[in-house]
Amino acid sequence: MKLNIAVLPGDGIGPEVTKQSIKVLNAIAMEFNHSFSFKHASVGAVAIKEKGNPLPEETLKLCKQNNAILFGAIGDPKYDNDPSAPVRPEQGLLKLRKELGLFANIRPVKAYDTLLDKSPLKEERIKGTDISIYRELTGGIYFGEKKLNEEGTEASDLCVYSKFEIERITHLAFKAAQSRNKKVTLVDKANVLESSRLWRKIVTQVSKGYQDVTLDFLFVDNAAMQLILNPKQFDVLLTENMFGDILSDEASVIGGSIGLLASASVGEKYALFEPIHGSYPQAKGKGIANPIASILSAAMLLEHFALFKEAELIRKAVEKSLELGITTPDLNSRNPSITTDRVGDFIEDFIINPKDSNINFANIHLGQSTII
Ligand code: IPM
Ligand code: MN
Prior knowledge:
The chain is an alpha/beta fold. It folds into two domains: 209 residues, 3-Layer(aba) Sandwich (Isopropylmalate Dehydrogenase); 148 residues, Isopropylmalate Dehydrogenase. Helices cover 44% and strands 17% of the residues. The strands form two sheets. Strands 2-1-3-12-11-4-5-10-8-9 form a ten-stranded mixed β-sheet, with helices on both faces. A two-stranded antiparallel ribbon has the order 6-7. A hairpin with a 6-residue loop joins strand 6 and strand 7. The radius of gyration is 21 Å and the shape is globular. The structure holds 3-isopropylmalic acid and manganese (II) ion.
C-alpha cells in the first residue's frame, strides 16, 4: 500500500517521539512491502515562532493533501503562564481538528500484565482492564462562544451540542462495542446540564439500532471515581469533549504511564494520530520521553487503513519491549539510562528481526548491541 503521511512533530518532546514512530513505520514498510512517504510541517509554539501562526496555511494544506497525519505534541510553558497571550499553540491543534472535521477521538486504555506494578492502583483492580474511550472532539465547551467583558472581570464559554454531532460519534462508539465487549457507557452530567440531557436522549435513540449492545449511563463525577475503583466494568466509554479530555488523563494511571496512551482522531474524510500526552517541556531533548504512545498511535494509523497484521506486529514489539524492560525512566527506575531512541531502535529491530532482538537483549542493556 502507498500511504502519504503528513508529520506534524510540534512542540516539546513531540519531535523526538515522532521520530521513533517514523523509524517504526519505515521498518513496517520494509517488512511488508509498503511505500510510506513522510512530509513534515510545523504546528504549535514552533509555528508561532517561525510564522506567527500556530496552524500555518501550508500546514493545513499539507494535511488535506495527505492520507493521514502523524501528530507529536503541542504546548509551551511560555503561553501557559500568560493568560493574555493573543495567540496560543493549542489553537493550532483545535483549529486542525475543526477544519478537518475530526469529530471522534478514540483513546484505548489497557493494563499491560507486565506493568501492573507500575500503576499506583492495586494490581487486582486493574488487571485485565481494556477500555476504549470515545471522546467527541469538535464540539462542546471547547468550541462554543467565548466571551470576556470589557473590564476583563467576567468570562464565559458556551457548551453547545447538536443532535447531528451526538449521533455521528455515537454510531462509531456502538460499532466499536459490537466488535468488543458489547457495552457502551455514556458519561455525562445530565442531572445538571441541558446539553448532557440531549446526549442521553440522542444516545438512547441511536442505541435502539444496536440491540446486541448494552447501554448504561454514569454522571461524570461518579465515572471519575469508578474509573479508578473498578475500571474493568468499562468497555466503550462515550463522552463529550471536555469530560473525555479529563477522564482519559485519569485513565492513563491504569496503564502505569501517560507515555503509553495513543489516540486516533477521525472524521468523514481525514484522520490524525497522536499520543495523548502533552509536550512535556521539562523532558525536551533529554532522551527520557516515552515514545510508545506515539508508536502505538502509528499502529492505530495502520489499522485505520486495514493494515491489521502490521499494527499487530507493532503491538507485539511494544509488548516485548515492556516485557524485557527496554523502557524509558517513567517505567524503569531500575535502569533509567534507556533512552527514547533506544526504545525506538528496539521496536524497529524487533519488527525487522524478532529473534535477533531477543538474543541481543543482554547487549542492549550494556549498550553494546550491534543493532543500536
Ligand atoms: C489533548 C490535549 C488538548 C485537548 C490540548 C493540547 C488542547 O490536552 O489532546 O487531550 O485539550 O484536547
Ligand atoms: Mn488532554
